[in-house]
């Protein structure tokens, strides 16, 4: 079988295709012949050595796949050979064949194509956990989505639209029309404008109820300021660490030198909450994640959303795929196909 390895930390050129024996599923696993693998910001960060949950190099990135079950081991219930599925892989997803614990595998709906299937697990589960579980999203909540064109940001917009929340999102000016077509209510220029002032002006100084923050660094303090009483600031994926072709020493230093200054006393005084999301550590609570995925599937089944897909690249173009995502050239998911 073929796999894409991160041979060492660095630029996209460190990705390398290698051949390996076809794996045999262990007890409780199914083997999937992969038809599409999703690329996430975590893959970019892992390649650059900025993700704590990755092993040392070399390793195989990839958190989500879609394909066909072709082998089922003992201890597996609910799956058989030939099932069309998607799965959370928690690394290893850049493979044309992979064995996955069956509790992390989900049967695709008959009308769910393979590209949609590979686009769902990482971004939509992260957005769901951030908004619904941690953020306690309600109708008419005002939600600020930083990096609104990222995978989690686009998924968050879909969830907010379904629930009936009012969305604000930061993006480059040239992407605003696309975001509004995608359902974003208020788009904010992020390159040359202070989004804090824009948000406060738009909300008549009331602030927002939820902020999804993948950036960190100098933004931590002002994001906290923008929360209305009862507001929730939810952190995920420090994507500022993956901007540009190489690791940005300036960005990394700025992020690390501006840690949050929240304290229990401040949180109680301000009636605000601060939380974080790491989807990989949720996987040990499989029943909870399965419940979230059932709701995402129900929304998909009702045609309330479809994931935004930008492009697909074959395995031998993985370097170009990573570069496109790292340079923010995409609007929607980038996928790899074996």
Describe this entry's structure for a reader.
By secondary structure, the chain is an alpha/beta fold. It folds into two domains: 2-119 and 307-337, Quinone Oxidoreductase, Chain A, domain 1, CATH 3.90.180.10; 123-279, Rossmann fold, CATH 3.40.50.720. Helix content is 32%, strand content 25%. It contains twelve helices and 15 strands. It has helices spanning 41-47, 114-119, 121-134, 151-163, 176-182, 195-202, 219-226, 249-256, 264-270, 279-282, 286-301, 318-326; strands at 2-6, 15-19, 29-38, 64-72, 84-88, 97-101, 105-107, 142-145, 166-171, 186-189, 208-213, 227-235, 273-276, 309-314, 333-337. Strands 3, 4, 5, 6, 7, 14 and 15 form a seven-stranded mixed beta sheet that branches. Strands 10-9-8-11-12-13 form a six-stranded parallel beta sheet, with helices on both faces. A hairpin with an 8-residue loop joins β1 (2-6) and β2. α3 (121-134) packs across α11 (286-301). The longest helix is centred in the last third of the chain and has 16 residues, at 286-301. The N and C termini lie close together (10 Å).
Overall geometric form: globular
Q: According to CATH, what is the topology of the largest domain?
A: Rossmann fold
Number of domains: 2
Name given to the CATH architecture of the largest domain: 3-Layer(aba) Sandwich
The largest sheet, given as strand count, sense and whether it forms a barrel, is:
7 strands, mixed
Work out the helix count: 12
List SSEs in N-to-C order. Answer: EEEHEEEEHHEHEHEHEHEHHEHHEHE
Looking at CATH, the homologous superfamily of the largest domain is: NAD(P)-binding Rossmann-like Domain
Structure classification:
alpha/beta
Poorly predicted ranges: 240-249
Overall pLDDT confidence: 90
Helix content: 25-40%
Strand content: 25-35%
The overall strand count is 15
Please report the distance between the alpha carbons of the first and last residues.
Answer: 10 Å
């Amino acid at each position: 079988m073929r796999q894409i390895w991160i041979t060492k930390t660095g630029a996209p050129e460190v990705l390398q295709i290698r051949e390996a024996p076809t794996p045999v599923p262990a007890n409780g696993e199914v083997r999937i012949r992969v038809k599409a693998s999703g690329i996430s910001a975590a893959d970019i960060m892992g390649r650059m050595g900025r993700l704590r949950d990755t092993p040392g190099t070399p390793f195989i990135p990839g958190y989500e796949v879609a394909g066909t079950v072709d082998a089922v081991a003992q201890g597996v219930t609910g799956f058989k050979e030939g099932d069309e599925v998607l799965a959370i892989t928690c690394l290893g997803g850049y493979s044309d064949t992979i064995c996955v614990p069956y509790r992390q595998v989900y049967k695709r709906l008959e009308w769910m194509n393979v590209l949609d299937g590979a686009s769902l697990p990482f971004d939509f589960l992260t957005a769901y956990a951030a908004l619904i579980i941690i953020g306690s999203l309600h109708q008419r909540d005002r939600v600020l989505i930083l990096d609104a064109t990222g995978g989690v940001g686009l998924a968050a917009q879909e969830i907010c639209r379904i629930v009936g929340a009012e969305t604000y999102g930061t993006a480059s000016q040239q992407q605003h029309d696309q975001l509004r077509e995608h359902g974003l209510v208020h788009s904010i220029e992020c390159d040359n404008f202070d989004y804090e002032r824009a948000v406060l002006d738009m909300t008549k100084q009331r602030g927002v109820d939820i902020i999804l923050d993948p950036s960190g660094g100098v933004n931590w303090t002002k994001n906290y300021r923008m929360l209305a009483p009862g507001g929730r600031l939810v952190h995920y994926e420090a994507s500022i660490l993956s901007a540009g072709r190489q690791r940005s020493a300036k960005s990394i230093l700025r992020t690390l030198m501006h840690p949050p200054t929240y304290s229990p006393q401040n949180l109680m005084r301000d009636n605000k909450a601060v939380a974080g999301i790491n989807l990989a550590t949720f996987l040990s609570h499989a029943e909870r994640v399965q419940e979230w995925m059932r709701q995402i599937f129900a929304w998909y089944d009702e045609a309330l959303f479809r994931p935004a897909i930008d492009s697909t690249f074959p395995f031998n173009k993985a370097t170009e795929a990573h570069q496109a995502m790292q340079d923010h050239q995409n609007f929607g998911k980038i996928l790899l196909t074996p």
